[in-house]
Amino acid sequence: xxxxxxxxxxxxxxxxxxxxxxxxxxxxxxxxxxxxxxxxxxxxxxxxxxxxxxxxxxxxxxxxxxxx
Length: 68
Prior knowledge:
Distance between the termini: 40 Å
Number of domains: 1
Helix content: over 70%
């Protein structure tokens, strides 16, 4: 089976509001299931591609702090 997780997640999330997306992210984190991590990675990838360097640097600094 040639399953493309990026395409599937993008199709499932298309047209969702910020509230809908927040609920998906919070549910995935709350459940803590490893198989949900790739989906969160797709969210991050989508964001990364549209963010400018200032936003990216800000998030990278926040992540560096979170992993201290």
